[in-house]
Amino acid sequence: MLRALAVDDERPSLEELVYLLGADPRIATVEGAGDATEALRRVNRALESGPDGPDALDVVFLDIQMPGLDGLDLARLLTGFARPPLIVFVTAHEDFAVQAFDLKAVDYVLKPVRRERLAEAVRRAADLRGALPRIPVHEPDPGHITVELGGVTRFVAVDDITHVEARGDYARLHTAQGSHLVRIPLSTLEERWRSRGFVRIHRRHLVALRHIGELRLDAGTVSVLVGGEELQVSRRHARELRDLLMRRT
Question: Are 204 and 165 in contact (CB under 8 A)?
Answer without folding.
Answer: yes
